[in-house]
From TrEMBL:
The chain crosses the membrane at residues 6-24. Its cofactor is heme. Belongs to the cytochrome P450 family. Heme binds at residue 429. InterPro entries: Cyt_P450, Cyt_P450_CS, Cyt_P450_E_grp-I, Cyt_P450_sf. It comes from Lactuca saligna (Willowleaf lettuce). This is Cytochrome P450. One of its GO terms (molecular function) is monooxygenase activity. GO terms for biological process: sterol metabolic process. SUPFAM superfamilies: Cytochrome P450 (SSF48264).
Length: 491
């Protein structure tokens, strides 16, 4: 295994980094660059950052850079000279900057898997248009109607994978759940063979996106590319079926609508389709990639927290039981129920602050930029770390302390651009309401149906770059008997 990694890295250097190195070699940068070192040609400090990431110490790694060089500094990361920024003002600059100055361009390897028309890659008018199409379904007013559907998926999940077991691996199970919720709600693909066929392809694609981009047989990256070529025809079929169903007016009932149907039916003012099929495909893919691991990471950390923290656990249980009491046995959750889960969402927000799923965001300078008295040359990367802001003692006092009261209405709310787990500005996560719905509904069902304890005391995780628990977060679960629940409720 180690050897394989070594060989992969060597190949990576040969095939990817050195060609880029020769492109950059001899290039003169303007005066006024931030302090710091670009380190070894091209490799720079990439391995240091990856190591810090793995150990979940990126905020410390960034802090060291700041101590050494000052608040704005440069490094060489993942093949590009990079300026590292942090703090609310820098976050505001990066998140709200004009797309002609800073773009969201990802390395070409990523668009090979996610497609060149995916929203992350788009800028300016195209980004606005595709984003409007996506949010036409993902916005709260629309999603609200689907709480019962998400809840049904959760109940089925618990019935299939949790009830009747004594021990479960939480993280892989919850990934199955978030995959299924996206399939059902966003793709309109119900349980069955078709869904099962999609799963491995998506998994390979996600692994490919996160892998070192060497396209040789048997590399993770190569597997990701192959998965895309297999997935695209399946998605083309799905789009065709939905278009036929629309034409036959089979879907007169808006309750049967899903994101794909919505993307097919959305039209410009002049009546032409707002998105091409190619755009629909790339954005279906990106929604799955962006929405599946992130939400499952949050839920997994919450399951761990509730096993470890008695005071948070009992406060959540009492909030959730209050809601359970108001429902008939077996009645589905509705939007109104979620609005009552205020404490639970504060706990989730605090979890997103401390264990933020997306720890790094990269942008690319499209022109020389002056920022904070320094020059960021055209073509350089700009790196923002949300963990860095989330762990800043000046913004979140005692930052390592788990304290959901930070998000209380009447408490000193975090200032703008300091809680950035979902990003901010025109590219802020459009899946936030869905993530919230899934998280709250799952917490409700979990704490009202089970109690659990960790099997490995304080099981650790590494970031690859998403947090992964060493044993998938092993817990022992005990079902709460319905009679026990109702006797508790009647107390
Ligand atoms: C707890 C769960 C989630 C977290 C923490 C999260 C976090 C983020 C962050 C930080 C960004 C902005 C990245 C940047 O600006 O560099 C983002 C963008 C995005 N997220 Fe999420 N996300 C979550 C769930 C979801 C879900 C469920 C979906 C699917 C509907 C989704 C779809 C997207 C998309 C499409 C973008 C790109 C938006 C754009 O470029 O305009 N996310 N997310
Ligand atoms: C549990 O959460 C409470 C409330 O946020 C916090 O004060 C306490 O330090 C936490 N306890 C542990 C063991 O993490």
């Amino acid at each position: 295994m180690e050897l394989q990694i070594l060989i992969t890295l060597l190949l990576f250097l040969l095939l990817v980094l050195f060609p880029i190195f020769f492109l950059f070699r001899g290039k003169k940068y303007p005066d006024g660059l931030p302090p710091g070192s670009l380190g070894l040609p091209l490799i720079g400090q990439s391995f240091d950052l990856l190591k810090a990431l793995k150990a979940d110490k990126v905020d410390k790694w960034f802090q060291e850079g700041i101590t050494k060089h000052g608040p704005i500094w440069k490094a060489s990361l993942f093949g590009y000279p990079t300026v590292v920024l942090h703090g609310p003002a820098a976050n505001k600059f990066i998140y709200t900057c004009d797309g002609n100055i800073l773009t969201n361009t990802q390395p070409p390897s990523i668009s090979r898997i996610l497609g060149s028309k995916n929203i992350i890659e788009l800028a300016g008018h195209d980004h606005k248009r595709v984003r409007a199409a996506l949010t036409s379904f993902l916005k709260l007013e629309v999603l609200k109607q689907y709480v019962a559907k998400v809840d049904e998926e959760i109940q089925h999940h618990l019935q299939t994978h949790w009830h009747g077991r004594h021990e479960v691996q939480v993280q892989p199970l919850i990934k199955t759940l978030t995959f299924n919720v996206i399939c059902s709600l966003l793709f309109g693909i119900e349980r069955g063979l078709k869904r099962d066929k999609l799963l491995p392809h998506f998994q390979h694609m996600i692994e490919g996106v996160l892998a070192i981009p060497i396209n040789l047989p048997f590399t993770q990256f190569n597997r990701g590319i192959i998965a895309r070529t297999k997935l695209v025809p399946m998605l083309i079929d799905i789009i065709r079926e939905k278009r036929e169903a629309l034409q036959e007016q089979k879907q007169a009932n808006p309750r049967d609508k899903d994101l794909i149907t919505s993307l097919i039916s959305i039209h410009d003012d002049d009546g032409s389709p707002m998105m091409s099929d190619e755009e629909i495909i790339d954005n279906i893919i990106v929604v799955m990639v962006a929405g599946y691991d992130t939400t499952s990471v949050l839920l997994t950390f919450l399951v761990k927290l509730l096993a470890n923290n008695e005071s948070v656990y009992s406060a959540i249980v009492s909030e959730q039981q209050e809601i359970a009491k108001s429902k008939a046995l077996g009645e589905a959750l509705a939007w109104e129920d979620l609005t009552k889960m205020k404490y639970s969402w504060r706990v989730a927000s605090e979890m997103l602050r401390i264990n933020t799923p997306v720890a790094l965001s990269f942008r690319r300078a499209m022109q020389d930029i002056e920022y904070g008295g320094f020059i960021i040359p055209k073509g350089w990367q700009v790196l923002l770390s949300s963990s860095m802001t989330h762990m800043n003692n000046d913004i979140f006092q005692n930052p390592t302390l788990f304290d959901p009261t930070r998000f209380e209405k009447h408490s000193l709310q975090p200032p703008p651009f300091s809680f950035v787990a979902f990003g901010a500005g025109p590219r802020m996560c459009p899946g936030i309401e869905l993530a919230k719905m899934e998280t709250l509904a799952m917490i409700h069902r979990l704490v009202t149906q089970f109690t659990w304890e960790l099997l490995k005391e304080d099981e650790c995780f590494v970031r690859n770059p998403m947090p992964e628990f060493n044993q998938g977060l092993l817990v022992r679960i005990t079902p709460i008997k319905a009679t026990f629940m109702s006797s508790k409720v009647s107390l």
